[in-house]
From TrEMBL:
It comes from the Bacteria. SUPFAM superfamilies: CYTH-like phosphatases (SSF55154). Residues 72-94, 415-438 are annotated as: Disordered. Residues 2-227 form the CYTH domain. The keyword Cell inner membrane does not apply. It comes from Streptomyces formicae. This is CYTH domain-containing protein. PROSITE patterns: CYTH. The chain crosses the membrane at residues 554-574, 586-604, 610-627. Keywords: Membrane, Transmembrane, Transmembrane helix.
Length: 634
């Protein structure tokens, strides 16, 4: 039985080509020599029995590589530092039949699966390795395809380690694959641990890569559960500033047990592009529903959701009903259900024939009376959360079931075809159930228990500045951009939950958009009002009023010229950078403040010339400061 010693690093997919080119040009790797090895494509199929291998951190795979087939069984070996695992694999540990017999003996000793009789050799030769494992009660659930590029790291005339650049696709039973990239360093001589530690340092310093500890099998299980879970309830957490998000992200990335009693398993980073559709009058938005087309890594999905509770929801969470069509599904089956439901519930929405393909979806939605209403870009980091368990049979207790999807999102909203944007960050906590489960299987109490503990833990990183909001990205974006006024249900649907010192909670209905009052906008409109008032006062007459034909003294000319330039720049900055953008409400605020300022500075007893100039000076300072702050915030 061999012992595998390796370390792994996470690489972002958009960095893969740069890393490949850098390694291809290298002859030295830190203090070591490096040379290019062979590239290969390998298809792994991982087997398990109701999560019993995953619970033990074991893995069992069949690997197809070229014209060869290998069966590999791995289990962790106690040790410090690099990941160490015992490994049984043909041909190093015997023939295929010998290895299968060794694996069968280990599984039987742990009461995992069933035996196929004494003649495993006959089963392997007659049906193959994969079929034999299935006959032993194992299920081939997790196919993984990896393109591996290999470099040999050597020193003092001896090969020390393999450096592998892996581009992996985790393929689910349905739907497209989830890609991930890694750097893996595996010792060829396991006594050279000091060299491995130095190579690990070189990778971290040279490429800024983050060390990870999950095997490909563990990653496959996580991706399968992420893609196979239906979201049933959600709550959004917002913090006081960006530094608090960064602190939380750093802690989550380095602490798998961020909350006692739970495991946080990192999922793949995602870059998501959503296009939402609504009627001309935003009827779906006004009724608490949305329909969108999501694009992600070449995949598309149509999703219709509606809030099951509008008004004051119970339990401080948003419950929703969902129907979705993935690219590759039979569109007609679910399309008719979505059409009938929407046509019956929402004004100005009619039924339409099912599109032939996803390329025809926008036209089909247009025939229903829906048009693009909001474009949303999401940069997402996500985790799958389970209860911690020491059981080797978690499937019997349900402890291996995912409870929550945790998402840290950076969001950009944009009206279709326009350049104006609004941005925000949020943490979304979503309760999930398995796609195959009945609706009754979802446990609300487990979700609420985790939510209470997680929000309490977050308070340690945010000095108690945690807002709990019930809403959806579509509703937030429409309101933030000022595309529509709040519907009657929005104030109770989008709300803030405050933790009381006594341990209870209270809800504050939203009276403004869910992000709160835009103080940047108030500061900006106040500055503009002062400038507008000053210019109006000067134009209405005065010894030094340039617009009124007064004297051309240098201070007055310079002041009024700079004031006019700043006024133009201010409106441009307001249009491009203001946190909420323009709306009738905000425009009204600007006009009202300007009128008040103009009246105030022209009262007879204030001294028109002095007040006008002082208003101009103060307006220049305030406008410059608010322009910088507003641009920085955006």
């Amino acid at each position: 039985m061999a012992v595998e010693v390796e370390v792994r690093f996470e690489v972002q997919p958009d960095q893969l080509e740069q890393l490949r080119q850098d390694l291809a040009q290298r002859s030295r790797f830190g203090g070591y020599e490096v040379r290019r090895g062979r590239s290969r494509v390998q298809l792994d199929t991982y087997f398990d029995v109701q999560g019993q291998l995953a619970a033990r951190q074991w893995s069992l795979r069949v690997r197809e590589k070229g014209d060869s087939l290998r069966v590999t069984f791995k289990r962790p070996r106690p040790g410090e530092g690099p990941t160490e695992r015992e490994e049984i694999e043909n041909p190093g540990d015997g023939s295929l039949v010998d290895v299968m017999n060794q694996i069968a003996a280990i599984l039987v000793s742990e009461n995992i699966g069933v035996t196929v009789g004494t003649n495993i050799e006959y089963a392997v030769h007659s049906a193959g390795a994969a079929a034999t494992l299935q006959a032993m009660g194992l299920d081939h659930q997790y196919p993984v395809e990896t393109t591996r590029e290999l470099w040999i790291v050597s020193g003092e005339g001896a090969d020390i380690a393999e450096l592998c650049l892996d581009e992996t696709k985790y393929r689910g039973k349905e739907g497209p694959a989830t890609p991930e990239c890694r750097i893996e360093l595996e010792l060829l001589d396991r006594t050279r641990r000091a060299d491995l530690a130095e190579m690990k340092r070189v990778v971290a310093v040279t490429y800024g890569a983050r060390e990870v500890f999950q095997s490909k099998f563990e990653r496959a299980v996580i991706h399968a559960d992420m893609n196979g879970s239906v979201e049933k309830a959600e709550l959004k957490l917002q913090f006081g500033n960006d530094h608090q998000y960064v602190a939380l992200l750093r802690e989550l990335e380095h602490n798998e047990q961020f909350v006692d009693g739970y495991r946080f398993q990192r999922a793949a980073n995602r870059l998501i592009s959503d296009m939402y559709y609504d009627t001309k009058g935003y009827d779906l938005f006004r009724r608490g529903a949305y329909i969108r087309i999501r694009r992600e890594q070449g995949r598309r999905q149509l999703t219709f959701r509606r809030l099951k509770e509008r008004g004051d929801p119970k339990g401080f969470m948003s419950k929703q009903e969902e129907s979705s069509i993935r690219e590759g599904d039979e569109i007609r089956v679910k399309w008719d259900d979505i059409c009938q439901l929407m046509a019956a519930r929402y004004q100005h929405v009619s039924e339409a024939p099912a599109p032939a393909s996803f390329d025809d979806l926008p036209d089909a939605l247009a025939r229903m009376g829906l048009r693009p209403s909001l474009e949303v870009q999401v940069n997402r980091k996500a985790w799958l959360v389970r209860r911690s368990s020491t059981s080797h049979v978690p499937h019997l207790t349900g402890e291996d079931r995912p409870i929550v999807k945790l998402k840290l999102d950076e969001i950009t909203y944009r009206p279709p075809g326009r350049s104006r944007t609004a941005t925000r960050r949020e943490c979304e906590v979503t309760g999930v159930e398995d796609e195959a489960d009945s609706p009754q299987r979802y446990q609300t109490d487990q979700y609420l228990a985790f939510l209470l503990l997680f929000s309490s833990k977050c308070s340690e990183f945010t000095r108690g500045e945690v807002k709990k909001l019930t809403s959806a990205k579509y509703f937030e974006g429409v309101v933030d951009l000022g595309l529509r006024e709040q519907p009657p249900w929005y104030r109770t649907r989008t709300s803030t939950v405050i933790d009381e010192p006594t341990g209870g909670t209270r809800r504050i209905p939203a009276r403004v958009p869910s992000g709160g009052i835009s103080w940047e906008y108030f500061r900006f409109t106040g500055s503009l009002a002062m400038l507008i008032g000053g210019l109006l006062a000067m134009s209405m007459g005065g010894d030094e009023g340039l617009l009124a034909g007064g004297s051309s003294q240098i201070p007055a000319v310079l002041l009024q010229t700079l004031g006019f330039i700043s006024l133009c720049a201010g409106w441009r900055a307001l249009t491009r950078h203001a946190e909420r953008g323009r709306s009738r409400r905000n425009s009204g605020i600007a006009v009202g403040l300007s009128a008040l300022a103009a009246i105030a500075v022209t009262l007879p007893w204030t001294g028109r010339d002095f007040t006008a100039n002082m208003t101009g000076y103060l307006g220049l300072v305030a406008l410059a400061w608010s322009y910088r702050k507003t641009s920085h915030q955006s």
